[in-house]
Amino acid sequence: MKKIWLLAVFLFTGLGISAQTLPWSKRMANTALHIWKDSLPGTNWSYDQGIVLLGLQSVWQQSAQGEYFGYIQKSMDRYVSADGNIRTYKANDYTLDNILSGRSLLLLHRVLNTEKYYKAASLLRKQLDGQPKTPEGGFWHKKRYPNQMWLDGLYMAEPFYAEYASVYHEDADFDQIADQFIWMEQHARDSKTGLLYHAWDESKKERWANPQTGLSASLWARADGWYAMALVDVLPYFPVNHPKRAALVAILNRLAVAIQGSQDKASGLWYQVLDQGAKKGNYLEASASCMFVYTLAKGVREGYLPQKYLPVARKAYDGIIKNFIETDASGQVNLKGTAGAVGLGGEPYRDGSYEYYTSVKTITNETKGVGAFMLASVEMERLANLNLGKGKTVLLDSYFNNEHRTDVTGKSIPYHYKWDELSPNGFSFLEQIFNNYGLHTQTLNDAPEDANLKKASVYIIVDPDIPKENPDAKYIEEPHSKAIGNWVKNGGVLVVLNNDTGNAEFTHLNKLMARFGISFNQNSINKVVGRNFEQGAVNIPAGNTIFKTARKVYIKELSTLQLSNPAVPQLTNGKDIIVATAKYGKGTVFVVGDPWFYNEYVDGRKLPPEYDNFKAANDLVSWLVKQIPQTKK
Length: 633
Hints:
alpha/beta; 19 strands; elongated; disordered N terminus
């Protein structure tokens, strides 16, 4: 009965009349869940599944609709056994194509902390240790394709490699990750267009390879798309001070020039063979066009590329919607125009000629196009409010809240309300919302002082430690209060998310809050037994100053507030004050007695759909951005 109800809800919201108002990313995600409701195409572990799941992951992280995460988990559980083995995966094939789906394993382990996903991901990581290489160290695309580096392989392997290295503390791997991009560009870049050829044979013996250069014959669009997406997906994990990071950013910028240069001016799209335009047989291709939109939009949003590429991305995205998207009678969105499977060598032999690439037929709702369209759509949707907080910084305290745990590698790491924490305890969803408004998210590991607060427009203090959580708990002392007070007075926006009695520090925090006319009551209301969510329900009346779209939220076991001038209540529950704000000099203070906006209650996986916690988080960030004085640097 539950499955029937869920399907009815899905069909109504995803494919019915209301689908017309959904963003394109969700409309395509709903199509994917509908046409592949039982399982993704294919019976073997493959990259075709991986690209769709990455698209769904992106939509989940932008929309907080838990069914997308559930689909990713169901898809991986078809292959991953309880002991961490992967059904149909053969490590000794040494094909980079097998690595891509490992990114979904990393997601699942980081969110659920279930060890089987880590074990499965580690199998893929171990493959890279044995992957055959060219003499200089470039990964062969597959063992059965000796001496060959393909652009595709950079996307198949390197973003997984980089995330694994970042999360599981294998920092030495970043040298090798960077080198794959550097060598590929050195060998495959066309000096005339700046684009990269599909593949390079180090031995120059393959029939498709130019006997002088070892390069394949054509500039195939999707190959450059894979490579471009790999760059923008690797860079977020790359250590900021790594000596080769700048080289990757430079490669991306050179490639962006070439991407723009090969864009069809009329449609805004890209041809299957990039440098041949409207030559007979050539055609505009959907998956590569989506990949280039994703690359340019994400590159600008992350600060790797200049703003001038946004009009390029917008024109292309409009062209994708106009030329490749159709809606059928049921309301389902379909993506036309994606080239089918493409490769080099093999049997029958693929020679990499212009005639070969243009002979490949296009397919509607082909996995690579569907996945890339979701990724591109989310990136375009993330641009909507990007300029509102552009250049500002939100600083998350990790001095007063400094709990640690031992991770799966045995290393002690900070946890509980951290930006990069994808588990229920983390703030990764809140971070994405801040990033969507253009704010940079950083962590303050030291005590707040005038110098280190100066760079922040927003400073968040969450759940200061008590000894049972951290034997070395740091308290908010008078010098800290003075520095924070002066910073707010000068225009800073302070956000304080405390907790309920027994789980929070009150005495020292209340001394800080007294400056703003706020005091936490040392109590705990909205006790919830099990999954009786109504016990934690709080209704928000229409017209609320801060929460303009959220109407019903869930907030359990929180401390209420007492107020005096200049503080004012912003949300009450009966006689209890839940949320308050205060104007203090040029600055603003926002306070609630619960961490509230952590992943567990905003990521869409736990709460029933009638609760608007994710909307409330978006409402709050929108309001906070407006409190930042325009002149503050």
